[in-house]
Amino acid sequence: MDAVDRRAVTPNKSILARTFAKVLNVRAATGVAPDDGAQKTKTQETVKQDSMSNRRQSFGNDEKLRHKSSERRQSFGFGNDEKLRHKSSERRGNDEKLRHKSSERRGNDEKIRHKSSERRQSFVFGNDEKLKHKSSNMHQSFGDNNEKLRHKSSNMHQSFGDNDEKLQHKIGNGRQSSGDVDEKLRHKLATEAFLAKLFASVSTLKAAYAQMQFAESPYDGEAIQAADQIVVSELKNLSGFKQSYVKKQFYEESSPEKVQVLAELQEQKSLLKTYEIMGKKLDSQLRLKNSEIIFLKEKLEETKKENRLIERRLNASGLLSNPDNLQFSGLNPNHFISAVRQTVKSVRQFARLMINEMELTGWDLDSAARAIEPDVDYWNESHKCFTIEAFVCREMFDGFNFPHFVPPNKWEQPKKQHRLFFDRFTQLKSLKTREYLVKNPKSKFATFCSAKFFRVVHPKMESSLFGNTNHTNVLRTGEFPDTSFFYAFSDMAKRVWLLHCLAFSFEPEASIFEVKKRCRFSEVYMESVCEEAFLSSDGKTKTKTETETEPVVAFTVVPGFRIGKTVIQCQVYLS
User: Where is this region: Disordered (predicted)?
Assistant: First the structure.
């Protein structure tokens, strides 16, 4: 819609108001009115009514304008009337233009209403056709779904019927299988009850037989008779069990659970009785062994007494250790054997003293034993003391086969000095070791004693045992320590020195020997320091077949000696 040209309107308040009214009438005639910034389309009747009211209002406004114009001509005079008539004619021209525009707009409104009616008609009729088509399709789909539902319903009814048949069939089979399971369970319980009664009867029979054996020693007639009756009764029960098993009569038990519990209780009672009888039998054997031990101890004491009597007789005859009237011409191997025993005893005492000192200072005896003799399997942990004893013997008897404990020169001819060695033996045997060393610090024995102490007790060992090296320092000055440890060592050294002198007093001289590791044990040349090597796992002496795989030599503890045809066995440790 074209807006009114403001330049064609005079600046008069009534004319401006009339112009606004015409503009509003034009908008009302087109049916478009502002409503909060949105346009609303009016119906055809409303548009006609608005158009008629606008026309009446327009005519009323014209009458008012003519009336005001006549008044103004009268008030302003003829000149003004002419001006007013001219303006009025201009306004009428404008009104004609406005009416022309209004008629054009009404034509446009008619076109708009026609198009609106066509659209409503096309929209309504088109939607009706679509709705009818959709409705027909929906009716057709509903019919198809109903057919499918009826088909599914019939299938479900048929499947439910089949399932009912299957369920009834399964229920029938379940009842039948339940009956079979109950029958199997009853059969199993009856079998277990029968076996429980069978084992209970066997246990009772064993207990009665054990009672019968126990009553035989010492003999108990009443106990034997009672046990015999029980044995006969249980044998009859076992025979009855056999018959009932063959005839399948043991299935007829009314309460197999109760029978099984009672049978197990009877079996436990019979086992308890058997263990009681075995305990009594072991107590009897223990008493017998104790009596044997007492008897053997008494026999050992008697044997020791006999040995002491024999030693006294030998001493009286001058054949044993160091008699004062021993002559060079009367030497025999028995004198040497006695000297060997005393020497070994002295060496063992000193080895025990060294072990005690090691234990007091916290030495690891296992490590010390492995350092001396590696890769040895000991029968007992306490046997590691034999390793320390073997070390002392090895150092003390080193060079024993040489006259002065050292190899002679190649150009030095061996001399027959049997008498000289016998004189040394006679001179030293009756003297105290401490007094002899003090009086003869430059003697052969004093030199031997100092040299062997350095071999047996190394300065590092001395420092570890005593916290100092006083023994070594004093010996290097040519003097001798005044300690109990050195006195024990000097006594042992004296025994070795005397044995060496006595060995070279014989013609031919006595010789020393050792056996190598892993050698086969021989009773002719060897003596074992541990009896465990000849005992079986049950503590008994091995039989001939068991000794075929006897242990081998691990190391030599005390060397052996030969004097002519006489052999003094060496002491070895077997592994």
Answer: 33-126
